[in-house]
Structure formats: C-alpha cells, structure tokens
Amino acid sequence: MKIRNIAIIAHVDHGKTKLTDALMRQTGAAEEGVSMDSNALEQERGITIYSKNASIFYKDTKINLVDTPGHADFGSEVERVLRSIDSVLLVVDAQEGPMPQTKFVLKKSLELGLRPIVVINKIDKPAARPEWTRDKVLELFMDLGANDKQLDFPVVYAIAKEGIAKINLTDDSKNLTPLLDVILKEVPAAGGEPRSEDAGREAFRFQPFNLAYDNFMGRLAIGRIYDGIIKTGENVFIKNSVGETRQGKITKIFTFEGLKRKEVSEAVAGDIVMIAGLPDIYIGETICAEVSQEALPAIDIDEPTISLNFLVNNSPFAGREGKLVTSRQIRERLEKELEVNVGLKIDFLARQSLGNGGSPDYFKVYGRGELHFAILLENMRREGYELQVSKPQVIFKEDPQGKKTEPFEEVTISIPVDMMGTVIEKMAKRKGSMIDISQEQSNSRLIFEAPTRGLLGYRGEFVIDTKGEGIMYSRVIGFRPFAGEINRQALGSMVSMADGKALGFSLYNLQDRGTLYIGAGTEVYIGMVIGNAAKGNDMSVNPTKGKQLTNMRSKASDEALTLTPPLELTLERGLEIINDDEYLEVTPKSVRLRKQFLTEIDRTRAKRQKES
What we know:
Layout: E1 2-10, H1 16-26, H2 40-45, E2 52-58, E3 61-67, H3 75-82, E4 87-93, H4 100-111, E5 117-121, H5 130-143, H6 148-151, E6 155-159, E7 164-166, H7 177-186, E8 205-214, E9 218-227, E10 229-231, E11 235-239, E12 245-249, E13 252-257, E14 260-264, E15 266-268, E16 272-276, E17 286-288, E18 306-312, H8 327-340, E19 345-347, E20 363-367, H9 370-382, E21 387-389, E22 393-394, E23 397-398, E24 404-416, H10 420-429, E25 433-440, E26 443-451, H11 452-455, H12 459-465, E27 471-481, E28 492-496, E29 500-501, H13 504-510, E30 523-524, E31 528-533, E32 539-541, H14 571-577, E33 582-586, E34 591-595, H15 600-611
Parallel strand pairs: 1-3, 1-4, 4-5, 5-6, 28-32
Antiparallel strand pairs: 2-3, 6-7, 8-9, 8-17, 9-16, 10-15, 11-12, 11-17, 13-14, 13-16, 18-20, 18-21, 18-22, 19-20, 21-33, 23-24, 24-26, 24-27, 25-26, 28-31, 29-30, 31-34, 33-34
Helix pairs in contact: 3-4, 9-14
C-alpha cells in the first residue's frame, strides 16, 4: 500500500482540527462527533495544544495525518513533527490572511525543503477575501526565501466545518475529494529501502517525534520508519545526539487506523508507527538495526525565552487541597514532563537564598511563553499537585562581543481605527517599534517588534484598552541587543493583615481603592494579596473587619452594600499581574497571589537587606 505523510499547520483558530476531523469522517476513519482535540484542556479552550496523529485510507493509499498546535507557545510541538513528514497542508483563514504563527510554521517547513499545499479555509465568511489571501500567501513565500518549486504551490479552497473543498472558487463541490486528490498528486510517496537478504539493502532506522504512555506496556515511541522493515521481537540499537549507543528489544508495533491503534507484526519504511519495549527512549533518538548505522540528525528546537521558579507551597493553606505537595513529587512530575515537552528546559540544582535565613530548593523552568507555563500548571493542579511559582522573567544572553541581548517578538495587532492611539502609545512605552501599518476593512493592522520583557503582563491591559475588540498575536523572532529600561506603571497590592473570612462590609470600603480578587466569604491569611492598589504602593488591609454593631437603628446604616464582582484569578491572569516580590499559589481548587514574605516586618527587613 502506498503511504503519504502530511502535517496540517496553521495559525491558531484557522481551522486545522476542523479540517482533520472532516477528512476522517468522510473517509470513514472516525465517527460523527469524534475530534482530534481529545484532551480536556483542548476542548475547554478550543485550541490544539498537543500534536496528534491519525491515518485515513483513500484510493488504496494510506495518508498519515499529523495535527499540530497553532499557538506560538507550542511551536516545539510543530518543529519536531515537520521532520517526519513529506508535505504540509498550510491552512489560512480567507478573511484574516497569513498571521504570525502562519509565518513561523511556514518558515520551518520551507527550511526543511517541504513543498506546502495551501488550503484557504472559511471561504463562506461574509468578509472572506480568498484571492487577496492567496496573494498575501505568495508574498509570504517570497519573503521567506522559498525556491521556485515551493513558490509553485497548489491551492485548494475549503469550508472545513462543512467538509467542502474546491480547486476553483466557482466549482460545485459537496465534499473534500478535491483536496484528497491534490494530496495524492502533489505529496511524494513515503518510502525507503526495505530490509532484505540482498546486499546493499538498508537495515531499518526509526526516529520518534512523540511519546505516549500505557499502564501495561510503559513508554511508547511514535515516529517514522526512515529505512527498512521493523519487526516485533527484533533487537535494536538506540543512538542519541551525543554519540552514545545502547541496546533494546521491540516488544510490540502499532500502526494507526483513524485515531485507533492496530497491532501488527511488522511495518515498512515510510509509515508512522508506535513501538513498545524501550522504557528509556527519548524524542529525537535514532533506533536502528545495526550498530554501524549512522544516527539521524537530532531534532533542533528553538530556545526558551522566559523562565520562572517552581517551589513547594509553604503558605498557611498548604496541603489543604493537594495530595502531591513535596519537593520530590514536584521534581518527579517535571522530569516526566521533560520527556514529552521538548520546548521545556529545567534546572534542578537551583537554590534560593532568602533574607530570613531559609534557603528552600526551587526548580528553574525555562519555556516559550506564559501560555506554555499555564498549560503545564493547569495539568499539574488537575493531577492533584500543589505548588507556587514566581513571576516570569525574560532570559538574557551575551552575544559573541559580550553585549547583553534579550528575546524580541513580532507583534501583530488588529484593532478598530479609533483605538490606534492608545495601543501605539502603550507599545512605545514598552520599547515596541512599529514596522508596518495597513488598513483592512474597518480595522487597522499594526505590526511591531518589541522585547518579550515589555510584552509580559500586557495582554490583559490590551483587552481593557480595546474593549475586547482587539486581536493580538506574537511570535519570537530571536535575540537582539538589550532595549534598555522599561518603565511601566506598576500597580501596588492590597495585602491582608489578618487571618479569617473576608466580610462584605470590609470589601465594600476597599473596592474604591483598587480592583479586588476575592469576594465576600473567601478565606484569607496574613500576607495574601486580595486585590491591587491603584496608587502603586502596597497597602496592608484588614478584609475580615466587620461592621461595628450598636443598639441604635438608622436608615443609612441599614442600606444594602453593593459589591463590584471581583476579578477572578486564573493561571494566565495571575502570571500577568504578579509582582516581583510575590508568588502565585496553585492548588487543585484555588489560584491565589501571596507575598513571598508574609508579614510586613519580614517584608521591610528583606527590602532593607536588598537595598544594602
């Protein structure tokens, strides 16, 4: 059977998963209602977070599909997949056109020499501009240095949610057959040299791009067979990027049929399979039949740009909700995450010196963005972990001349014209420089280059400034010279100076001083941050103070108190608004902000030590 290997890549919300689901339904590989976004977090947020693979069968050809994330923070998921496939379906929204992540994933695929098939999706939108989008995609290909063959890309128009594809906009189509035919015609057949007794034939080589886990079989490697035939029970050699070799044995082999796995006794070159029996296998290693075979090139991933510290939760409420609370348990969980999350790096030997004489361990975790960390923390809290994290910090480096550099991002902003002034002013304060401005229908599209340091904590402010009408996307474009100090208006914190339950009477008097994060009846402790203070300085308050009762009645005192609904603290919002001297406390049921030093005396002492 012929094999085709393709990945579906796109900017977030341009229709990758909808297209994959429609392809599987129409080829009988999945039932109605079954989606590639099977993870609970993916379904809740409506975005793809983890790359997943499936297969469909069409005209005696097996097509292996790999669905990839569209958010820039999960770029490492895309990078490792592209090496194992032969072409990509680049999905672009017919109204929005190419966006930052479109540029990122396309650049990676062009560098690998792949020839994309462009799918212009959502052509049924009232404001769709398919021809304009096609021209913009061509411009993007030229900007990224595509060769002549890549510039001659096939284009298919689609409505993924209805399962319709067309070669020409005027065609009458009721299904995705035109797209499937283009895949068979344009994607090169996967293959290699099958193993044989004949001299000169290649023995098998396999490289995993993803890992899975089974309670009975242990760790499973998902990857592509580059050469030869792989068989159950065969002894193999595993080679890593440092040149070390170890031995193992393959106990089971699975191929994919739709989203399900099917056990087979052997698999041939070009196929994407899952193998069991190698408990210490890692992404990017080479599994081969003979020790003399050369290892495949290691999978390179772009470097992390921000870091934060993971610590054991030592707040007064520690251990109330979580079952996994110790340093050893957090360490084991992070080590497990490293196996599958190749965009993450962790320093397990970090120590923190505290002014009060303590020196607790912490783990310094390096990642690609705030959402990258938020998803990891959300998964951990759902598994029963309890921990606290520090404020995200940008990673600084030195260039060969010894000068300080920092990560920069290209920021694309689409906003109504009357809001341009506010956004341009805010971006300028954060050292953002505008490189392009264009008018698109009723909106303006602004493109900035800004340091990641300036963008941390801005997204929430951006939503307020644009009244929820603005769209903001960014992608990392590399390390550039240090942009200098960024003076942003810092909000102070309202810090509880008492233990107990917050009362409506007290919160009513505090809500005019800033924005509250808690409502009446919430349990608080000394040092917990209950809101922000608009004046910019920290403020110690007593949210547990009740109304002074007397035996006299008055009309004024009997009026009902109207509390403004509090700003709910989510993981992403907490990582945005946290200050340098605070921790974000993450438990299975709660997300709280707290001061690193709980009492005002300890905070004053630590501040003096820092200044001296």
